[in-house]
């Protein structure tokens, strides 16, 4: 399925109007059913959908992990994902039942999280991973250079998983949260440990992104943009290193600066 589409536009540039075509990001509604019951509809970019489903269900606490899933069937033509699970957290599944999640990250989605995340403070395991400042700049440059869909459309967010030496994995989506769920789902499916790595991100570090980062087990998040006040408070409580405004030769280290080394 295509992740971008051509649209006719009227472009103004250098004092002239011209008829042109532009690439725009595709929005795709995916309705997830768990054990034949409708759970949620997510508006997303239509790629790596199985990773998205696994990452979403695990990070939302509907299942405990990939071992709880017996089968996933994705029907792209109708926008449905059917999940057969041998274990379902009935409270979380009921609470989330038939919710519609847009590609934006507004207050309604943040409320969707907080009511079921009280146990997170007790379950988070801190990482001993450190990164040098030169490594952070290098990884951000590598990450942005590979963001081809953003360069073409300007309409998606990017998330990645990196070490000090390389960006291991990168995913994009119209929703910041979806991009991170795709990363998490891929790691769950392939048994990739994330505790000794860092999340690298293109957009704002909101409270929901901070929560999802904590749930993956990563203790470091790097972003080209800024965190919110609530995200900083959560990062302090959870022991997560939040680094933002990584641009050129500058960055802001908001929390747990002990993990960031000069060289």
Automatic annotation (TrEMBL):
Active site: 104
Superkingdom as given in the UniProt entry: Bacteria
Cytoplasm is among the record's keywords: yes
Keywords, comma-separated and alphabetical: Cytoplasm, Molybdenum cofactor biosynthesis
Keyword Nucleus in annotation: no
Cellular compartment(s): Cytoplasm
Main location: cytoplasm
Family that this chain belongs to: Belongs to the FdhD family.
Function, as annotated: Required for formate dehydrogenase (FDH) activity. Acts as a sulfur carrier protein that transfers sulfur from IscS to the molybdenum cofactor prior to its insertion into FDH.
Protein name, entry field: Sulfur carrier protein FdhD
Source organism phylogeny: Bacteria, Bacillati, Bacillota, Bacilli, Bacillales
